[in-house]
Amino acid sequence: MEPIRVGVLGARGKMGSEAVRAVGEAADTELVAEINREDSLRGLSEAGVQVAVDLTHPDSVMDNLAFCVEHGIHAVVGTSGVGTEELSRIRSWLGEQSEIGVLVVPNFAIGAVLAMKFSEIAARYFDSAEIVESHHPRKADAPSGTAARTARMISQARAAAELGPMPDATTRDPEGARGAEIDDVHVHAVRMTGLVAHQEVLFGTEGETLTVRHDSYDRRSFMPGLLLAVREIERRKGVTVGLDPLLGL
Amino acid sequence: MEPIRVGVLGARGKMGSEAVRAVGEAADTELVAEINREDSLRGLSEAGVQVAVDLTHPDSVMDNLAFCVEHGIHAVVGTSGVGTEELSRIRSWLGEQSEIGVLVVPNFAIGAVLAMKFSEIAARYFDSAEIVESHHPRKADAPSGTAARTARMISQARAAAELGPMPDATTRDPEGARGAEIDDVHVHAVRMTGLVAHQEVLFGTEGETLTVRHDSYDRRSFMPGLLLAVREIERRKGVTVGLDPLLGL
Amino acid sequence: MEPIRVGVLGARGKMGSEAVRAVGEAADTELVAEINREDSLRGLSEAGVQVAVDLTHPDSVMDNLAFCVEHGIHAVVGTSGVGTEELSRIRSWLGEQSEIGVLVVPNFAIGAVLAMKFSEIAARYFDSAEIVESHHPRKADAPSGTAARTARMISQARAAAELGPMPDATTRDPEGARGAEIDDVHVHAVRMTGLVAHQEVLFGTEGETLTVRHDSYDRRSFMPGLLLAVREIERRKGVTVGLDPLLGL
Amino acid sequence: MEPIRVGVLGARGKMGSEAVRAVGEAADTELVAEINREDSLRGLSEAGVQVAVDLTHPDSVMDNLAFCVEHGIHAVVGTSGVGTEELSRIRSWLGEQSEIGVLVVPNFAIGAVLAMKFSEIAARYFDSAEIVESHHPRKADAPSGTAARTARMISQARAAAELGPMPDATTRDPEGARGAEIDDVHVHAVRMTGLVAHQEVLFGTEGETLTVRHDSYDRRSFMPGLLLAVREIERRKGVTVGLDPLLGL
What GO molecular function annotation could you give as one example from this UniProt entry (chains A, B, C, D) (predicted)? Predict the structure, then answer.
């Protein structure tokens, strides 16, 4: 079988250079274009790119996607800034008959995607659920986007199962030790030198607890998910969000 | 709605007395018979038991089940010793038209069942998988039955996904620190005062790890699963093994 | 050697009844008096008690101690409510020549005492330190007293080593996910059905983390420390606070 | 104050190049010599090196140390292969009046040193102790040297406190799930893609457990300990083994 012809946009960036390496090393993909800020997008079509991987910037991602859609190139998008509004714009570009797939992936780490899914499944069977996320101290936001998203999924699963509020007799917490409440799920954020990106989702009921923990040490952890996206996109026409459907979850 | 009429066999045992308490306390179940070794099984039919919960002994469980099937009583079985051979015997008793449900449950802890299921799902996405189970020091077997079962499920999931052997460069391990190999999955057993029953399933791939941990502190952790079984058995004609199908997994 | 003659005050309480059991079972201690709210303290002197264990109530503990000091009875105090002011009152009762020991113990769990001590030692070697404490959901205060005390010890050890502030680039935390700040140490409190009392102290520096975790499952965990206090108090004239000095820390 | 003049032997190696970076960056140390296999040791004396850091090979370390002792240069040794015999040879070179310090460090990670020390302190207070070490799958030995050393320290501390054997009712363990026994302490070794170097020491007694965990993600974790050694060696004449004495433990 011919290898998939891949172009990486933002090839010199942190994620981009990892993607260049991963696509180059995999047996079934071939790196045929590296596009940086100063390069014309025409490099993609001239190189016969089948799948473009966008790892650029919120300012440029929509222009890049417009070009891909216009030139019949599938796109895997790891850039942030593609929200609800942007998604419907992309859908309108694709129209109904399109053969093009656009796969927007908020998190390429397969472990993180599984952890979130498992949390959603478990949520309905436990009285209590809380999240502790831990990251390097250079992170500006607390809690992490992944933790907030996980909290919302847990909250919705509990509501669907008609669970009542979680038990919590706290009457005195002058300093806010109980952390953030995201849709009724308490979320705690640790910031610490030596850490990278970690999340622990804790569930408890009478006499037992269940913990789903994900540790991400390295940008390389995103590459198996990125390659999975590159391989599967031809079978996913239209807009897809997240790796979940590709994992059969 | 009328509460479900429940009889507990082995009512004075450790699990049995917990079941008596739990069935008595739940709003939708009613405890109408407590049967111990010296009591006649006729107590079940005389009390109009709809669901019998067997928490007795491998020596008596099959006789108890024969009585239940004969008298049209659903049975939830927490007793060990119901293997492949016993299951097919029960199936032959039930015949094809039976309205009776027999639900054999190796583990009532919902958290443990979920942990095992999550491990099975995750197995195919990671290069490495190992299990560390930790129990109180009065346990005679190592590894635990749950750990061995989890190892086999992981091994089968890896085989189905055509994963190769796990990476392991160990060439010197004179004392056996790498632990047991159950179907190619390394399993480690910790025995320690202060612990009850715990299991950690670890998965690793390039740059990330995923951990599914279950902690069981108390026999009470089995009661939510036991009540779930009592409530669902009417919808499960024939023989069912494990809580998984009841959890929609 | 003669066993130590012990009286338990608050013998019917939760901790008290555990103490009655533990003192009764140990080979080198003898339970000679059980005093409850309605009993006269004279029961202690009449029974020839050498060491009184006070597990009563903040309202009664100072009267009990006055009686013990007056009657030459050593006292081990597990009751809360003995603060700085009370301690100096006790010291004034004892005077300079006293042969009596009063040992006030905020936490009898040896593991908790060690965890706190280890945290104090480690604090000066790491850029970052945070605490995650987890308890059953019936707890009214957040964070736990132990967590607050540990945070203060870490903060003091950092100041003594002239460490600067911990690195933390958080600029956006609208819901308070970063938790409580106790003397500059972030403290997070989890409340969850199924848990008892747990604390994790995390330290991080370039490329490594150190974690000290204590899990307390049961009131029985306080008994080894309580017996240690009973055995050692004869060698500790005057007022002592905490088990640390008895552990040689 | 003048910065300490440092020479690195094995400057091109993995640890060596990290040391070159760390010594160069610290305000109170100055890198004045980088010595590799092909360079003469005279480069050390010619550059006026005060402290040599040996990160070479078991074959060359003793020759390097002989040169340092002869030329009045303090030596910090991270190279393996300096055992009991080598240590007494070095002591004989130094003689009694020497002003030279030789500091042999099996592990520069301060967190690992603390974890080991804490384990030694805790050992006497708990009925049970076990070790789970986890490493990347390219490691040839199981268990790790650190785990074996920690096990021996725990075993000696238990013997000194006259503790009996740990409770363990295991009668059936056909596959060796209970792991290695190093001096009566069970040690378990996990090997997994995505991990680096991790160790968990578990202690348990009635109703409570204490866990000391060390995670090492990166060679950089050795640099704070290496710089500490460089700074303190002038105050440590003669031969010292390990960072413990420098940490005041």
Answer: NAD binding
